[in-house]
């Protein structure tokens, strides 16, 4: 109903993903409003978004939506919000995320081979890891992938925990603020028109 009749070309959509046409500020506001308007309780939406956003800080590239959705389902939160939350992991943020969790994992004590630290090519790592997994090349996974993937996995554990709470409380505040302002607008409209206007049930805080 609200989709475009003619979708933009694939190349145009890819460019818009890398650099939003409406600008980063307006894009952020757009997603904030989109999340706030989701049906469900404040906890459900905030926790769901936090699941998707925090799971983006793991090296499980390609599985973020699936894992985030399962996590959201497990804690009885909004699965759609978790899908939206995975946009935190994108081509702009992944390089910083990967470097952070790798170095944190090494700092936490994961033994990493020195030659891998000199030239970290995460794009090649994930591409080769996928090919090796499909071919069941356990030797390559153990010798070339694990020395890098291991520290990333270790570093992701505390990062996911911290970022989950950060995103949960941030989104919770955004939703409460949005819904409060919406209720106030409804009351103002009712006062001006004298007509009783009911607040939609999906915007209740319960």
Flag low-confidence runs: 10-19, 201-206
> How would a crystallographer describe the biggest sheet?
none
Q: Structural class of the helix and strand makeup?
A: mainly alpha
Percentage beta strand = under 5%
Count of the domains? 1
Q: N- to C-terminal separation?
A: 29 Å
Mean pLDDT: 78
Report what the structure shows:
By secondary structure, the chain is mainly alpha-helical. The chain has one domain (25-175). The protein is built from nine helices and no strands. It has helices at residues 10-18, 24-36, 42-55, 64-74, 79-85, 94-107, 114-118, 122-134, 138-193. Helix 2 (24-36) crosses helix 9 (138-193) and helix 3 (42-55) packs antiparallel against helix 4 (64-74). The chain is elongated and about 70 Å long. The model is unreliable at 10-19 and 201-206 (pLDDT under 50).
Describe the structure concisely for a colleague.
69% of the residues lie in helices and 0% in strands. It is mostly helical and 206 residues long.
Features:
206 residues, 69% helix, 0% strand, elongated, disordered C terminus
What is the topology?
Blueprint (H helix, E strand, L loop, with lengths): L9 H9 L5 H13 L5 H14 L8 H11 L4 H7 L8 H14 L6 H5 L3 H13 L3 H56 L13
Helix pairs in contact: 2-9, 3-4, 3-5, 3-9, 4-5, 6-9, 8-9
């Amino acid at each position: 109903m609200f989709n475009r009749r003619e979708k933009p070309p694939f190349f145009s959509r890819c460019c818009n993903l890398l650099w939003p046409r409406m600008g980063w500020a307006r894009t952020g506001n757009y997603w904030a409003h989109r999340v706030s308007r989701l049906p469900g309780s404040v906890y459900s939406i905030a926790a769901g978004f936090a699941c998707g956003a925090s799971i983006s800080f793991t090296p499980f590239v390609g599985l973020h939506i699936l894992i985030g959705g399962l996590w959201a389902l497990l804690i009885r939160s909004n699965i759609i919000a978790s899908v939206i939350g995975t946009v935190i992991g994108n081509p702009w943020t992944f390089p910083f995320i990967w470097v952070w969790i790798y170095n944190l994992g090494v700092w936490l004590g994961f033994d990493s081979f020195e030659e891998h630290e000199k030239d970290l090519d995460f794009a090649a790592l994930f591409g080769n890891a996928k090919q090796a997994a499909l071919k069941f090349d356990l030797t390559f996974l153990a010798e070339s992938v694990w020395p890098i993937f291991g520290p990333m996995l270790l570093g992701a554990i505390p990062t996911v925990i911290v970022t989950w709470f950060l995103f949960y409380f941030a989104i919770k505040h955004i939703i409460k603020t949005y819904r409060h302002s919406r209720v106030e607008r409804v009351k103002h409209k009712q006062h001006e028109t004298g007509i009783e206007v009911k607040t939609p049930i999906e915007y209740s805080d319960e």
